[in-house]
Design a protein that fits this description.
heterodimer; A: alpha/beta; Rossmann fold; five-stranded parallel sheet; two-stranded antiparallel sheet; 6 helices; B: 237 residues; Ubiquitin-like (UB roll); Alpha-Beta Plaits; globular
């Protein structure tokens, strides 16, 4: 159970998004199991894959999964920063680029050529360039290289317990801190 | 008292000839370190073991224990600086823990856990480094190398093979292989060498042995490195 003295006067508004991530951190978030019920006593959701709200309104907490790999990621991240009082990098990709950043040592043109021409079994003669598709950046960036980030939760993914501990610390006004077994980079 | 000195107010016994780090570890007091390994000559390379003795910042591994000295070790000021050094090590290489076989047994990662490094903070360099898979039993992943110099020392001092060396200066400093081709496969490196076992990170790893111990059950997964001083002193020498 929560170690809150009193419930907050109003529910805190939380927005979440996955940029260049695999939704593993969101799955881990859902992995809180019954702790989710405790959390829902304290927070309500704005933009999130859980609500399907498309744009972020004014929020107390923004959780960002994934690094920044394309132009759309940059716009979404800035929208979150402009609307969220506290922005949290959730998981390895948001914290340090994560596995998508493994492409940072390679030329983007070569990466696209490999994916759309050279791959075994790929039948294609063009690199998709529809105007609806966001352009790839030349490198994948951790989110704190694009906007100011208040807090970081490392882990690939951070465990449900780690996310719960961090958020409940934050909501209760304590300095968020992970217990040792929750502190994981893998 | 003879052959005793003070760390953070605690009296620590020592044997003449021991350095401050050795004496501290033997007494169960942890001082963060990366480039110190029992049985190898301390080289003061990583600076993680920096402590304050009589007002001066010194490396605990290269300072001889001396009666009566007073050492500041586990202080917020020093730990903040150590965390800063770890962050710089993380951003200057390519350290992707989720994809590394060393994860959970990695000393760099263990120190980052212990000092609560929540983020590498600085802009990442994402340097271009090499991978050498030419050796039949081991591969070298320079993305993870922190140029601590332990493989260089082990290969020279213990194995008497001089397979590894540090080349370049400052930011360009890197490990090279002492063969005409520069490939590990052309050297007489063997997995029985001490140099194969001292790497604190995942830069030198055996081939064909992955995840024999699952993630979550590894050395630093449950217990912080700071509580494992006995292991750190009795690691094979």
């Amino acid at each position: 159970m929560l170690s809150l003295q009193e419930p907050p006067e109003r529910k805190l508004r939380v927005a979440t998004v996955s940029l260049s991530g695999c939704f593993g951190c969101h799955m881990s978030f859902l992995d809180m199991d019954e702790n989710l019920l405790d959390l829902f006593e304290l927070v309500e959701f704005d933009r999130s894959p859980l609500t399907d709200i498309k744009h972020c309104g004014p929020c107390d907490i923004g959780l960002i999964e994934g690094g920044v790999c394309n132009s759309e990621n940059v716009h979404v991240l800035r929208e979150f920063r402009n609307n969220c009082r506290t922005l949290i990098a959730l998981g390895a990709c948001a914290v340090n680029g994560g596995l998508p950043a493994l492409r940072n040592g390679l030329d983007v043109r070569e990466v696209l050529r490999e994916a759309y021409f050279e791959q075994l079994g790929v039948v294609s003669n063009t690199i998709p360039n529809d105007v609806e598709l966001p352009l790839l950046l030349d490198k994948v960036h951790p989110i704190n290289e694009v906007v100011f980030v208040d807090y970081f939760i490392p882990g690939c993914p951070p465990s449900g317990d780690a996310i719960f501990k961090f958020l409940t610390d934050l909501v209760a006004g304590r300095t968020p801190r992970l217990d040792y077994p929750q502190m994981r980079f893998d | 008292m003879e052959n005793t000195f003070i760390i953070d107010g605690m009296p620590i016994p020592f044997e003449p000839g021991q350095n401050v780090l050795q004496a501290a570890l033997a007494a169960g007091i942890f001082i963060p370190h990366l480039c110190f390994y029992p049985g190898l000559k301390p080289n003061g390379n990583c600076k993680l073991c920096t402590v304050i003795i009589n007002g001066r910042h010194v490396s605990a591994c290269t300072t001889l224990a001396n009666s009566g000295i007073e050492v500041a070790n586990n202080t917020p000021e020093l730990n903040n600086k150590r965390r800063l050094m770890l962050q710089m090590l993380f951003v200057s290489g390519n350290h992707f823990c989720p994809g590394c076989e060393k994860s959970g047994n990695c000393q760099l990662q263990a120190l980052a856990y212990d000092l609560e490094m929540m983020t590498p903070h600085f802009n990442h360099f994402f340097p271009k480094r090499t991978i050498d898979a030419s050796h039949p039993e081991a591969f070298l992943d320079m993305n993870r190398c922190i140029t601590c110099g332990l493989c260089v020392q082990a290969s020279g001092e213990v194995d008497k093979k001089n397979i590894f060396a540090l080349s370049g200066r400052g930011m360009a400093s890197h490990v090279v292989i002492n063969t005409p081709s520069g490939k590990l496969g052309d050297s007489d490196f063997a997995m029985s060498d001490k140099a194969a076992r001292v790497c604190p990170v995942g830069a030198i790893l055996p081939k064909r042995r992955g995840y024999a111990i699952p993630i979550g059950e590894r050395r630093y997964d449950e217990l912080p490195i700071s509580s494992q001083t006995e292991f750190l002193t009795t690691r094979e020498t």
